[in-house]
Known about the structure:
The complex is a heterodimer. Helix content of chain A is 8%, strand content 65%. Chain A is mainly β. Chain B folds into two domains: 2-204, no CATH class; 223-324. Helix content of chain B is 78%, strand content 0%. The longest helix of chain B has 55 residues, at 95-149. Chain B is elongated, with a radius of gyration of 33 Å.
Amino acid sequence: MxxxxxxxxxxILGAWLAVISxxxxxMNPGLNIQGSLTPVKAGVRLDDNVFRSTLTTxxxxxxxxxxxxxxxxxxxxxxxxxxLQYFGGGDSYLTCDILDNLRNDGVASIDFVSGNLALYLxxxxxxxxxxxxxxxxxxDGLLVGAQWSLSSLLNLEFKYKNLSREYGSQxxxxxxxxxxxxxxxxxxxxxxxxxxxxxxEGDYTNREFNRNAVIPIQGLPGTFEDAGYLQTDQSYxxxxxxxxYIESILQNLSxxxxxxxxxxxxxxxxxxxxxxxxxxxxxxxxxIQLFARLYEKTYDQTPLAIxxxxxxxxxEDSQDLxxxxxxxxxxxxxxxxxxxxxxxxxxxQPGEYYIKxxxxxxxxxKF
Amino acid sequence: xxxxxxxxGFLVFWAGIPGGVLSQESSLxxxxxxxxxxxxxxxxxxxxxxxxETLAQVEKLGTIQGGQAKLQIQIQTLExxxxxxxxxxxxxxxxxxxxxxxxxxxxxxxxxxxNAQLEKQYQQTRTEFEQKALSxxxxxxxxxxxNLASPPNxxxxxxxxxxxxxxxxxxxxxxxxxxxxxxxxxxxxEPAFNPSDFRGLDPHDKEGRRLAMDLLRDRKKTIGxxxxxxxxxxxxxxxxxxxxxxxxxxxxxxxxxxxxxxxxRGSLRRNDIQSYMGKNAKTSLEGRLRELEKQISMDRQMMAxxxxxxxxxxxxxxxxxxxRL
Lengths: 367, 325
C-alpha cells in the first residue's frame, strides 16, 4: 500500500513540476522559473533495537526498507526569489509494521536579496503518519530571517522561528506532548582563509507544552502536585563550529553548550556536546564520511519516572554516536552508500540508556 | 570607431618615436602600418614623452662625460706641469717659475672645481635617467603583457605584424636594459654606449628575432607554470565543493537518523542555519572557482598565441636558413 502511494505521489510531483514550469514561463517571460526533482534515495537497513530497549535481552532486530524523494520549483524575478518544495519519504518495517511511517514535507519560501542583505521567509508543514502514537504528528513552522554580509568573508545572520507540533492521537498521555516553540538564533560566520571557516551561534528557545507543570509538595518529600500553569522550558545555548579543509580532507568540528531552565520539576538540565565530522576522498569516485559525537547531559534533579512526560522532547539528537559511511559514485547520476552506525541515547527511564546498531545500504539517483 | 582610435593612437606613438630615444622607427614600415594595431593606444602618449626625456638624458650624460674627459686631460696636463715645476724646487725657483707655478695651480684648481661640478651634474642626471628608464622599461613590459594577452584570433592584426612589433619592443627593451646597466654601475666598466645605436632599429634582423624568441619562451614558461599552479588550485576547490556536498548529505543523514530510528525529529536546527550559512560558504568557493576558470582560460589563450608566434618565428628562421642554403 505504501509503495503504491509513493509511486502515485512521485508521478503527481513530476507532472506538477513540468506543468508549473512551462505555464509560468509562457505567462511571464521576465520570470525565470525552474523545476527539478531532488535525488531519489532507496535503501534498506538493519536495526538491532527497533523498540529502544535498555536491556540487552529485549533487543528486537528488524529490516526496514525506505524511500525518499522530492522536487522543487524555484522562481526568480529581479531581487526576488520564491520556491515551493516537497519531500516525501517513508519506512516499511519487515516484521514490526506498527513502526511503519510516512513523511510528507511541504515548504514555501520567499527570499529578497539586494546587495549584501538577504531576507527570507519560510513556511513549512510536515506530516508524519504512523500506527505508533508517538510518531504520528504534524508540525507547522514559520521561519523569518535576515543575513547580512559585512564583507565577502564575514556574514551575520538572525532568524526567528515559530514551530508547533501536534500529535494525531487524542489520548491525554499523547496530547500532553504537544508543544509550541518560539526560537531566535543569532549567528556569525567568518572565512578566516580559504582553508578555515569559523561560525558562532547563540540561540534562545521558549518551549511551551500542552500540559501543566509539576512541582514538589512542600513538606512532603517525594510527592508532587499539578502547578496549575503550563510547563515552559527556556533554553539558552551557543554553538561554536569550524570547517577546515586541509590536505584534501574536509572536517567539521562543533562544540555546543546548552542550558535549559524549566518551571516543572526535573526538566532543568545542562548539555555539552562535541561533534566531529570528516569527508575523505581516497579516489575520484569513492568517499568516506565519518561522524562522532560525545554528549553529556546533567539534570539538576533526578527526573520523574513518567515516560509520557519525557519522550519526544527531552532529546532531539542521538547522543553518543559514531557513524561511518562509504559512498561510491557509480556514475554522475547514480551512487551507492553503505553506513554503519552505533548510538547510545537517553531512554525514557531516568538514568537508563539504550544502544542501537544500524547498518544501512542506500542507492541514490540524481536528476 | 574603436579601430580608428587604435589607429590614431598607434600612429601618434610611432610618429613620436623619431624624436625619442628609440627613434627613427619610421623606417619600420612593415610594423608601422594600420594593420599592426596592437594595444599601443593607451601607452602611446606616455611612451613618446618618456622616450624623448630618456634620450635627452642619455645625450646629456654623454655630453657631460665628454666634458669630463676633456677636463681630465687638461687636469692631467696641468698636474704634470706642476710636478715638473716642483721637481725643480731643489734649487730655488726664480720669479718667472714661481709665477708660472702659481698660474698652473690656479688653472688646476679651476679645472678641478669644474670637474667636481660636472660630476655632481652627472650624478643628478644619472638618477633622473634611471627613474625615467625604469618607468619606460615598465611600460614596455606592460605593452608586452598586453600584446601577449590580446586575443589570438584578432583579425585586425596579422601575426607577422604582432611579431614585428614584439621584436621591435624586445629590442628597445634590450637596449634600454643595456643603457641602464651602463649608467647604473658605479665603476662604469661597461663599454661606452652610443645613443645613435638606437637609431635605425630593425625588427626583422636576427637580433630582434632572437630577442622576441627569448621573450616568448620566457613568457611561455611563466604562463605554463601559472596554469599548472592555478589548475591545482582549481582541482582543490572543485574537490572542496564536492566534499562539502557530501558533508551536507551526511549531516542530513545523521539528522534524519532520528526519524529513521523512530525518534521525533529535531525542530529548530533542522536545515536552517546550516543551509543558509553553508550556502554562503559554497557560493564564496564557487565565485573563486569561476575566477580561476576565467584566468586559466585567458592563460590558455595566451599560451596558444605564444605557441603560434614561436612556430611562426621558427618557420621564418627555417625559411631564411633554407634560402641561404
